[in-house]
Fold this protein.
Amino acid sequence: MTANLFTAFAPFFKKAADKPALLCPADDAVITYGDLEREVARLANLLRAEGVAPGDRVAVQVEKSAENVVLYLACLKAGAVYLPLNTAYTDHELDYFFGDAEPRLIVCDPKRADGIRKLGSTGEAVLHSLDANRGGTLMQAASSMSDDSQTVQRAAGDLAAILYTSGTTGRSKGAMVTHGNLRANAETLIEAWRISADDVLLHALPIYHVHGLFVALNTCLMTGAQILFHPKFDTDAVFDDLPNATLMMGVPTFYTRLLASDRLTKERCRNMRLFIAGSAPLLDETFRAFEHKTGHAILERYGMTETGMLCSNPLNGERRPGTVGPPLADVEARVADEQGSILDTGEVGVLEVRGPNVFKGYWRMPDKTKEEFRDDGFFITGDISRIDEDGYVHIVGRAKDMIISGGFNVYPKEIEAVIDQVDGVGESAVIGLPHPDFGEGVAAVVASGDGLDQEAVVAACKAELAGYKVPKAVFVVDALPRNTMGKVQKNQLRERYAQAFI
């Protein structure tokens, strides 16, 4: 029996062929489960025709669209490894990803095609294009393909996707996620959140990220639920569709923007069954304000690129603000010190986890993979945590200075490496500061004795980094604060500039 994740979705393509799978309010399009089956088959056949074999990587950097979903499913069906890339990544960033992953096929926005063709890292990869309106070469080429296609046999340990996470040393790591990882996590979440064919998910998340791609899509497609598929989070569009939905998944920024409007009322949320938040910490005041205005307690959960979802506040039971709930049913969690010694209940240390959802390792980085796992199979998350006497996990900090801005992970070292190359910069320290909209805003503190132009720093970052990594503020100082061992004291900088965005 094949363990290909696609086989978990396939029953609904037959059983619910006439039922809407994706409803796209932006252009009034409705894609049924039967439509999905035919479109996926055509694209899977095209992948094979272009020489994509099982295990080959398909790199995708396109705007969110129903066709993007079809492409993800076609990769699963054809046994290819789906490699989603943030649409904000620059050609400089893409050059590394393509060189590291060596994709057989690259799909990009038509506007990016010329720049990507010039990259030396693309090698022998076939290049196709796709925009948000079915434009480009991909769907045109697929239209002549048969709508009948066999699903490729895959084992649970075979790769379904590679997702790149920024590295603390500046080099991104490709997290290898298997068919078994994705299926196990989706099945667990369906049970934990009681997702069913009766649900209608309001989907306004990007789909190059675990949250919008795997958590949202996989759980709905595996249950035959409907998806209100928004191209992005637009406050007015979301308010228009709230009465039509039963379920919403979002980052905390979504909820703070909804709270800012008088349109957020109990009446507008009358059909909603569940609001879920993740990808960044949900503030206690956001939780309480949302509950007061809507009558709904937001369910906060916690996960990582490498693991999918790990913890969740209960569907039925106390949803505690400031916690991410107990570990999911098939996840083991513990807290350890830096030496790996297990700590007692309530003690603060690094969270370690084990379960069928935990990834296979980092692409072509065996030493890094070994470094991040204990001998007994527990993955070292790097998140500073404690587990209370009731089993609820509290994320109290992050190791290695990672910033979460608008739900995206930002690693300071990557940005510092760009800033340090700017003329006049002696050294830099990138930090996260409280931000009313993004949770944390990226800020750079630069040591320079030459009257550095802050705009030069921002321009250099814009040229090489995705927009969400570009500092929203640059502070110039004579010297960075250090301790007696010479280490930059970022905690002092965070305190000094704490009010910069507030």
Observations:
- The chain has 15 helices and 24 strands.
- The domain at 402-496 is CATH 3.30.300.30 (GMP Synthetase; Chain A, domain 3).
- The CA atoms of residues 287 and 298 lie 6 Å apart.
- The chain has three domains: 6-17+26-179, 303-397, 402-496.
